[in-house]
Amino acid sequence: MAPGARDEDAPMGGTVASGPGSSRLVRFAGPALPYDRTYRLLGRLDKVRERILREQADILEAHSPYLATAAIVASGRKASRARTAFWHSDHVGSYVQPTLDRWLGRRRAQAGTAPLWQAMRALLLPFDAVFAAGRGQADRLRKAGVRNVIHVPFGVDTRTFNPGARRASERARWLEGASAKAALLVGVGRFAIDKRWDIVLDAFARISANRAAVLVLFGDGPERKRLEDRAPPGVRFAGFEQDRDKLARALASADVLVHASPYETFGLSVAEAVACGLPIVVPRSGGAAESAEPKSSQIYPDLDATECAAAVERLLNRDPAELREHALEAAARVPSVDRHFALVLDSYADLLRGRDARS
Known about the structure:
Layout: E1 2-4, E2 8-11, E3 24-29, H1 45-55, E4 57-62, H2 67-74, E5 80-87, H3 91-104, H4 106-124, E6 129-132, H5 135-143, E7 149-151, H6 168-174, E8 183-188, H7 197-208, E9 213-218, H8 224-230, E10 235-239, H9 244-252, E11 256-258, H10 268-275, E12 280-283, E13 297-300, H11 305-316, H12 320-332, H13 337-358
Parallel strand pairs: 1-3, 4-5, 5-6, 6-7, 8-9, 8-11, 9-10, 11-12, 12-13
Antiparallel strand pairs: 2-3
Helix pairs in contact: 1-2, 3-4, 7-11
């Protein structure tokens, strides 16, 4: 169940995970949000609650910490056998805390955000478990007093995103017009303020001043026009690539993925790049750094374009064969989407057994 431009109730076709089953997508018409109009408000809580009660589910998952959470709680304890929440966005730690750090200093900022974390703990209290994809996020929730936090990394569709997707023709396509020896850099994500693509563009300007290079950015969003206007020569905006096979080929055929947001709770696009055997350069903070293995990646201080450029240069100056070997080793350790769902479903089995025993 999700918000959309119009009411909708239809079966969903295809699934990454293997095995029998079926799924439906139920949308409730909601207004577009002002900053990014591809996001909509789950405003009809009465309709959501009505549908929840009709389903009589074994498990209800909340994937938004606010309205979806409210809809599930409002449906009552008897609406399902167990209720879980997935922690996708850390608005307090990722946005409020850094701002207050700059204004007040770390100690005062921690005191200032304490009531917000208390509110978040209260919001999650009615749920039987809270899933966090990143280790750092799981630790942060536990420190805030949230109970039964389960760390389960998101899985990658490794049948699509793997080193075998590499193609010389794909590399040549993105380097068209540039030297065959040019470095091919890529970035993947939503073009929004919090993703800090300005850091990537400034870093690329420094890199391209010293060597032949091309930067391909996959994604779309409210900041795209601003980014296009400030992009240095050699940057190519590929748009949002819906074909996952094409995106995998581009990642597997590049030299480095560059990422700048220190606010990721996990960083799925970064994990997909690692699964393709692509070395990565990521900021020190946030979930993206958890995908960085020392032998095939570089970590740099948050929001520092100069250090980001230097980190890319260190990777590009490595012995290509040695770097490739380590990147392939890292790719083999990326958890698959099947592994992710197996861990989640095992957790659900434990939750249901516990509730049935208490009943």
